[in-house]
Amino acid sequence: MIILRLIVLAAKTLWRHPLRSGLTVLGVAMGMFLFAAIETMHGAMRTATTAEAGDSELVVYRENRFCPFTSRLPEHYTARITALPGVATVTPMQVVVNNCGTSLDVVTFRGVAPERFAEHVARRLRVIAGDLSAWTKRSDAALIGETLANRRGLVPGMSFDAAGITVQVVGIVASDEPQDRNVAYVHLPFLQRASRIGLGVVTQFNVRVDDPSLLAQVAEAIDAQFAHDSEPTQTLPEKAFLANTAKDVVEIISFARAVGLGAMLAVIALVANTVLLTVRGRVREFAVLATIGYGDRAIATLVLADGVLLGLAGGVIGVGGAWTALWLGAYSISSEGLSIIFLPSATTMLTAIAVAVVLGLFAALVPAWRAARADIVACLRTA
Predict the structure, then answer these.
(1) Contact status, residue 331 vs residue 41, Cβ threshold 8 Å
(2) Is residue 184 helix, strand or coil?
(3) Residue 4 confidence (pLDDT) above 60
(4) Angle CA(199)–CA(66)–CA(136) in degrees, nearest 5?
(5) Best label site of 99, 172, 240, 376, fewest CB within 10 Å?
(6) What separation in angstroms does the CA of 99 have from each of 103, 160, 336?
(7) What is the DSSP letter of 90?
(8) What does the buried/exposed string (b/e) look like for 35-60 if buried means 16 or more CB atoms within 10 Å of the residue's CB?
(9) Mean of per-residue pLDDT scores for the chain
């Protein structure tokens, strides 16, 4: 009960100095906005590239080629891969992008044969607008991932053009797989003709194995099968393939985490400075409190409450701003046709708020110690 009263008293004290407190809260909010955004990016990268026990997907690419423009494999490899032990399904796929480099606005077309789409792709998609069955009724139909649709303002019935390819949007789809949220699924023959690559040539094969423990064994068998062909292959687990091709993105996010650390240090400095100023302006008040019976612990708690309240207010505002910006912006970064989606999670945001509170508490430790150790007589003599 006493602690609650001290917190209320600290809040009233901060409220009596709106400009100083407001500027500090704003500074904390900016720092925590940056921290929350960077942690969201790091979490998305970790989720997209960290292998899990149940992963069963392989990506077969042209050896020593990573950009979709340069990876070309004969479609007839499908039968030979399917015949290998441990292979459950094989989906030949043509990938066309409007930009093969690292960018925030990459449009990725994925061409899948209509007869394979329902079994190998549609099972993990959820239609949130339009009609999935309409995709099979016209050759230029496209199913657009929700992130790409939000970024480009696409709705069913619209015509969409990118990378010199024009398609008709028939549906918007959601998926638990990040790669499905930022692509446009089209018919394989249509994409082969529209991109002028030619029928019978694909970019990659997506292979699902019977047993996740056989991923490495099946990958080796596939590469050995085509090692002496004119188009040799390189096969990797899907997440390892993403990590291998998105090295630039990994480096960018690693640097961004250093920036986030700098933001945390700035938050500590801001809160510590404000609390110190508050303590200096309240020396006589603390002396009076000590005279009427408030002990050193109560005075220290009062000062610590200042730091916690500043950190909490700034954290809530900054994290709320980061959540809103990331959710409405539907940001993603793509490299060589593979995307990482930056969607905020409740866990990350709550962690960021907790970090703001801890930083505020940590910043107030020295001022609290000084206030609690101050000499009563000297403080009462202070003008």
Answers:
(1) no
(2) strand
(3) yes
(4) 40
(5) 376
(6) 8, 16, 8
(7) E
(8) bbbbbbbbbbbeebbeeeeeebbbbb
(9) 80
| DSSP run (H or E) holding 89 | strand 87-97
Tokens, residue 205: 């094969």
Give whole-number Cα distances, 250 to 65, 126, 211, 237, in Å.
19, 29, 29, 18
pLDDT > 50? residue 383 = no
With beta carbons less than 8 A apart as the criterion, state whether 274 and 21 touch.
yes
- Phi, psi angles (nearest 5°) of residue 92: -70, 140
The Cα–Cα gap between 229 and 106 comes to 32
pLDDT digits (tens, 9 = 90+) for 184-240: 899 999 998 888 787 888 988 988 888 888 888 888 999 999 988 889 998 888 777
The C-alpha atoms of residue 176 and residue 382 are separated, in whole angstroms, by 64
Report the 3 state secondary structure along 202-241. Answer: ECEEEEEECCHHHHHHHHHHHHHHCCCCCCCEEEEEHHHH
Taking the CA atoms of the chain, what radius of gyration do you get in angstroms? Answer: 29
The yes-or-no verdict on residue 90 having pLDDT over 80 is yes
3's enclosing H/E stretch is: helix 2-15
| pTM (predicted TM-score) | 0.72
Phi (first) and psi of residue 233, to 5 degrees: -120, 160
pLDDT tens, residue by residue, 72-85: 899 899 889 999 99
3-state secondary structure of 274: helix
Average pLDDT over residues 259-276: 77
Question: With contact defined as beta carbons under 8 Å apart, do 125 and 173 qualify?
Answer: yes
Q: b or e along 81-92 (b: 16 or more beta carbons within 10 Å of the residue's beta carbon)?
A: beebebbebbbb
